[in-house]
Amino acid sequence: MIISPTDTPSLESPSQILASSPSLEYRFYLRNPGEVKVVADFLPALSLNNERGRRFAVSIDEAEPTIVSLSSQSGSGSDWSRSVLQKKIAGQSLHTISTAGVHTLKVWMVDPGLVLDRLVLSTSTIPHSYNGPRETSAEIDAVSVIGEEETLSVSSADRYRRIVNYGTLEVRDADLHLLGDLWNYGTVRVIGDSELNIGGNLANFGFLDLLTWSGAQSGSVSQLGNVLMREDIRVENLQVSEGDFRFEVPSYRGHFYQLYESATLQSGDWFPVGSLLAGLGQNGNPERLSYQIPTSEFQNFFKIQVD
What we know:
Helix content: under 10%
Number of helices: 2
Order of helices and strands: HEEEEHEEEEEEEEEEEEEEEEEEEE
Distance between the termini: 53 Å
CATH topology of the largest domain: Jelly Rolls
Structural class: mainly beta
Oligomer: single chain
CATH architecture of the largest domain: Sandwich
């Protein structure tokens, strides 16, 4: 998007911008109030007039526009060279929004000659990448939101356009069919041979539990949170005490732990020892389950099965 004609007068104050400047408007959905960073990417075009700057302004809802200045280098200099290599020159601003829900972003002209290419809004750190994050769905009504105290168990028959998760999303021996993005701020737990068919991006800002997952996944992943992997299943604090062999296993909520015993290691020769125990830890903070075996049974083999 570019301003025409290119000799349009520059504007110098928020009051002039509100009274006279053209603007672009975009609606977006914000789950929680707080600080939002707006990064605007422009094409690295040459300045039309060295006596004028390269400025634009940003506002959200009815707030006063914030004027942002891009680098003044044009045609030479390290900033100019970097912007040509990256095919963009970026400016950013910070805005505090007091309410959740639908808001309106406005980008205002201050100086002509800028060619707007892309806008990125974020409420937390975005992982670095050459092309930046994928675009997200503009259809607010298509968003399935899981609240902080809610749990959604996925069925293979279900279809979703986009999911924003603040609670628990569980995919247990099922297939997740998602047309767009999955934004996770809570817990996503994938169990068994489940498949994640994600047409957009899985952006994890919370806890991604893949402890017992053996399935397949399509779509890209942006990893900013914690991930629980199969290698996190382990035995700790082994010791012999008071005639017993004792050990602990870190456990996590949503999983079940069973001790098995075998004298031969053959597949059909494993038998459960004790009761099935439910995991207790959550969000990367495991609680340990304690086991003890009489030393008289040391000649046998033992294993922990997690599902």
